[in-house]
Amino acid sequence: MLILAKAAMALMLGFVLSLITGLFVIPLFKKLHFGQSVSKLISKRHLKKEGTPTMGGVIFIVPVIISLILLYLKGSIEISYNLIIVVFVFLAYAVLGFVDDFLKIKYHNNNGVSLVTKFLIQMVIALIFFYLFMKGGGEPTLSLSFLNIYIPLGWMFGLFILFLLVGTTNAVNITDGLDGLAAGLSAIAFFAYGIITWNAGWLEGYQEIAIFCFLLTGSLIGFLVFNTHPARIFMGDLGSLALGGALASVAVVSRHELSLVLIGGVFVIETLSSLIQIISIRQFNKKIFLKAPLHHHFEELGWAETDIIKMFWVVGFILAMAAITYGVWL
After folding, report:
1. What is the residue-wise DSSP string for 279-323?
2. Fewer beta carbons within 10 Å, N or C terminal of the chain?
3. What pTM did the predictor assign?
4. CA angle 125-127-128, nearest 5°?
5. How many CB atoms lie within 10 A of CB 296?
6. Per-residue pLDDT averaged across 199-205, rounded?
């Protein structure tokens, strides 16, 4: 019961602080003209979203950090090494996203930080995380606990983490194209990892990692109050990159890296749809999808935005529950 009470407390704390933050942030960002520039290459019905405030990621990032500080000062949690490196990745990618969003707002376009520069910085953050993870006693081993198989990867584990962090941050960013889509899927994903991590008693600071996940879940639900259709604010790269980085780092420290394929299954599908479309156009000059990523394909088919979001959330929920069954029960 204590575990359930702590999880509920973290969810509620994150939710309430997120609501309070949103009530202050949205009017402020409107006053500062922190509006989103919408590309004309996307569906025409998205043009009406032009000028909607962006950088809304602060609505769920700030409450999580404040909550962790308050809980530490109250003596409810300890600041473990694993929590520190997860929060480092969370904030490092948030800073990168902030710079990208700020440049987009300043120059009123969607260019921001160049793709090459952004990719290089993402790699640097991932490499720092790998170094800190290994220094903290992490083992370069890929585990399939259900089959009791453990695969030592050596230096290749560094490449695996690099791929995981960079891939996940970009996957969440790609999925963030409809009101509430990425935020809802992320809330489901972090809730799943909260449950999985709380059952990883062998992990140093496992309770703190779980509380971080539940705090972020609650904060994302609070953010959805402002971000569901019609969105009053977008999370921006500030939010999507931070979420992707945190999701991947939690997967690594909890040693449930492969569960991320299921828990983040919709993110994976969205990314693959974009990759397949690019390859098909460049190699065969043909389109597989009417428009990529996949959520835009359904838009082109005439689906309502809310129906697409609900369908993707349901799929994400089913996959997350399957991952919990694998990660906790089996």
Report:
1. HHHHHHS--SSSSSSHHHHHHHTT--HHHHHHHHHHHHHHHHHHH
2. N
3. 0.94
4. 65
5. 23
6. 80
